[in-house]
Amino acid sequence: MRTALSIAGTDPSGGAGIQADLKTMTMNGVFAMSAITALVAQNTTGVREIVEMTPDFLGQQIDVVFEDIPPDAVKIGMVASCGLIEKIAERLRFYQARNVVVDPVMVATSGYRLISEEAVDTMKTCLLPLAVVVTPNIPEAEILAGMDIHRQEDIEAAAKRISEAYGCAVLLKGGHNINDANDYLYAGGVGTWFYGTHINNPNTHGTGCTLSSAIAANLAKGFDLPTSIRRSKKYLSGALGAMLDLGKGRGPMQHNFNLTGEYAKEAE
Ligand SMILES: Nc1ncnc2c1ncn2[C@@H]1O[C@H](COP(=O)(O)OP(=O)(O)OP(=O)(O)O)[C@@H](O)[C@H]1O
Ligand SMILES: Cc1ncc(CO)c(N)n1
């Protein structure tokens, strides 16, 4: 069985972070593992408090995984501070980690900051160059590219700019500001739109975590990047389309929905 590791923060209410990643990776047919960057007291209504892991202990979590069950893909989510980012980059370089997907988590859906100002620069210089793909939403892409995004042309320009600056593919998620579900991939000098059908469900807590984990799981299984993105968007539509309604805020998605035949398919 192929394996994937999530390096991210927690969500005790189960909709985002490590908890969403483990559900998503499991449903996408890989063995899911995790290294925790921070304990986050949060639920569907927002973030209450964060207790960060020390860089040394995060490093030990990564070491025990790689020494025993080297992952076929790694997803990196919330990493709040410079020391943690530097530790992850150093360990992943040491193990020559493959299929690294970076979700540059900066602000929770509720508006709570999940990364310090200084750490954004460290993320740019240390983490993005290790990624095969980075998956910013529009506000994150504005920060990474250093430009405002208002229209479709801005999405295309920002993705190109981030990709050229850090040498990784960029999947810029359009779902946030615009009422559609279209994402733009810029990889190896080529831009491609991935069109999705907008699902009228307000319970979108953890969509970003779920998409990046599904991409990592599909890369681990041997699918190429465009195919992994296509499959992951389909998975997300299924999880959103199941119309789970839990919690008092933006609720979580349902992961144990019925996956159709397409998903049984393995990479050639
Ligand atoms: N209502 C929706 N219907 C269908 N797809 C959606 C919807 N909302 C978001 N998506 C898709 O979900 C994926 C994640 O995008 P989104 O922009 O929501 O991420 P995010 O802002 O990082 O998430 P989070 O709120 O977890 O931080 C993208 O592929 C996007 O197109
Ligand atoms: C731990 C964690 N990672 C990412 C997000 C973004 O949705 C969140 N709310 N919590």
TrEMBL record:
Keywords: ATP-binding, Kinase, Nucleotide-binding, Thiamine biosynthesis, Transferase
UniProt keyword ATP-binding present: yes
A GO MF term: ATP binding
Gene3D superfamilies named in the record: 3.40.1190.20
Pathway(s): Cofactor biosynthesis; thiamine diphosphate biosynthesis; 4-amino-2-methyl-5-diphosphomethylpyrimidine from 5-amino-1-(5-phospho-D-ribosyl)imidazole: step 2/3; Cofactor biosynthesis; thiamine diphosphate biosynthesis; 4-amino-2-methyl-5-diphosphomethylpyrimidine from 5-amino-1-(5-phospho-D-ribosyl)imidazole: step 3/3
EC number: 2.7.1.49, 2.7.4.7
Annotated GO CC locations: cytosol
Domain Pyridoxamine kinase/Phosphomethylpyrimidine kinase span(s) in chain numbering: 11-253
Enzyme type, top EC level: transferase
Domain of life: Bacteria
GO-annotated biological processes: thiamine biosynthetic process
Family: Belongs to the ThiD family.
PANTHER family according to UniProt: HYDROXYMETHYLPYRIMIDINE_PHOSPHOMETHYLPYRIMIDINE KINASE THI20-RELATED, PHOSPHOMETHYLPYRIMIDINE KINASE
Name by which UniProt lists this protein: Hydroxymethylpyrimidine/phosphomethylpyrimidine kinase
Lineage: Bacteria, Bacillati, Bacillota, Clostridia, Eubacteriales
Gene name in the database record: thiD
